[in-house]
User: What shape does this take?
Amino acid sequence: MNYKSFDGDDLAFLKNLCGDERVTAREAIGEDYCHDELGGAFARPDVRVQVVSVEEISKVMAYASEKGIPVTVRGSGTGLVGGAVPLEGGILLDTSAMTRILELDEENMTLTVEPGVLLMDVAKYVEERGFFYPPDPGEKTATIGGNISTNAGGMRAVKYGVTRDYVRALTVVLPDGTVAELGGKIAKNSSGYSLKDLVVGSEGTLAIVAQATLRLLPLPKAKISLLVPFPDLAAAVGTVPKVIRAASVPTAVEFMERDVILAAEKFQARRFPDSSADAYLLLTFDGASQREVDLAWDEAAKTCLANGALDVFISATPERNESIWSARGAFLEAIKASTTEMDECDVVVPRSHVAEFVLFSREVQKRHGVRIRSFGHAGDGNLHIYVLRDELGEEAWRKRLSAAFEDLYAKARELGGQVSGEHGIGVAKRPYLREALSPEIGALMRGIKAVFDPKNILNPGKVVPCE
Ligand SMILES: Cc1cc2nc3c(=O)[nH]c(=O)nc-3n(C[C@H](O)[C@H](O)[C@H](O)COP(=O)(O)OP(=O)(O)OC[C@H]3O[C@@H](n4cnc5c(N)ncnc54)[C@H](O)[C@@H]3O)c2cc1C
Assistant: This one.
């Protein structure tokens, strides 16, 4: 696609609209804005514009559309698939200054926010007022706009679902600058196609999330975590469906292996409560009363012990909970710190196939001579499999990574899984999405993109599979 080259007139227009301080041109743009947390995808925008209102976004888009300038939206840049990298240059539309919490509606239990509000600030704000925003992705400095656009998951998905389940309404700006309201403060809706749900998870390729109304729950009154060591991974993961089938669904069910725990201990310079077993389940239960939570964890503990668990460590104090969960939260960074470069496969498979998939990843490790580490959300089948470069030269790394990924994504397809459970497609996983979709579904996706964005100016080169 031919886009207009960004020139002095375009810069003057944006400076006139937003002011000099919020518009940064080419060489003055810091390297941080040329990539996200994925290694490997890097591109410099022609201009970075920090927007502060729906109206400003609308005016920038109307201008970009008229001129044919590509626009890539960026929140905090914590994405793991290169989604916020401006592959075609043009405008990087930065929402990080739109940080106002606009309304807490206690009767309808909703919170309306601007897209740049950080996840951690949403959680803190509502919890201080007795409410609960359940989605709990690991990276708390991500923006809500980014979370919505990637349909971010997180630890509590097994009981509470993912970001999409908590988006009641969106104010969006379409690629031509039109402002549209999708959804509402309503608990159900059967009124035609759900465009709100289509925009959620569309990674900034269909529309810009300019405001969001989120659904809240009452804050659970009690919470407990169990750390359960098992002799091996198959025993640990094989117990998960039995725990979930029990009367109380756990809030979180994570699996972890010893070598990842050791990496986290080293990274954090802090001991994990136990690291003697090969594999662990980390379970959390929450509820409206201590009694409800006690009944739930007691049943889960018995199920684990009956299925080969070596012990059950109970973590009921905030300090102990913090030490376990902060180690869990550090896994990604710990693995990253243990190597020179890495790439991630974030597949989701049916819960019953988690153990098979992880064991398969060990075969892939041997087959292609690359180190692979994994951990993940055993409760919802979403795995994080990291292929590590270590000391491999550029050519060997690219070759082996690609061969390992081919095998991993093929296995996920064979098991009835999907390419991404929560990190999205961006640029990095686009070829694998193409392989996973039938030609008809690929054509439907291209058709949807063309309806929203006929000039293909919004985040070009992402998500939508090529023909
Ligand atoms: C240590 C670590 C742990 C992580 N853990 C998790 C996890 O548990 N679960 C999970 O799901 N993800 C996780 N992530 C990935 C990442 O945090 C999420 O993808 C997050 O939703 C990205 O938000 P962001 O504000 O950083 O968005 P960015 O990276 O800036 O952008 C992500 C995508 O959303 C688009 N976008 C951003 N804002 C808007 C907007 N307002 N309108 C339209 N499009 C927009 C961008 O164009 C891009 O395609 C983790 C990342 C790291 C580094």
Q: What stands out?
A: DSSP finds 15 helices and 18 strands in the chain. The two ends are 14 Å apart (CA to CA). The chain has a mean pLDDT of 95. Residues 36-37, 72-80, 83-84, 95, 115, 137-139, 142-143, 145-147, 149-150, 152-154, 203-204, 208-209, 332-333, 422-423, 426, 459 surround flavin-adenine dinucleotide (CB under 6 Å).
